[in-house]
Description:
This protein is an all-alpha fold. It has a domain of 63 residues. Helix content is 56%, strand content 0%. Helix 2 runs antiparallel to helix 4. The radius of gyration is 20 Å and the shape is elongated.
Amino acid sequence: MPKSQQSNKKTSGTPDPVKFGKDLRGIVRVRTRLAVCFWTLPVYVVAIWMLLKNGRSIDSMMWIYMVVYAGFAIDMSMRNCPNCRKQFYVKSIFLNLLTKQCVHCGQTSAPTESPPKD
């Protein structure tokens, strides 16, 4: 086995605290993006209604919103837990937007404070 693969196996057992924190921040960030997409749905509906009222086409606005939502949802579903390496928000086929913990191991996405240095 090449040395590069052997060294990767040795370091994969202990998670790097800096990378662990970055992964958790990334998980929180994608959850926030998708939540913002959900909360802007009323603005989207009002904008569509106004465009229809003025006799304009809604195709481009509809496609843009759908692409943005799909991109955020795919990004959120692909995030892996830094602890168990399984999908953080997906246990079966459904994406769980409400949870702040890994649906497999219970790892919280809240940032943990490092112990104070003396």
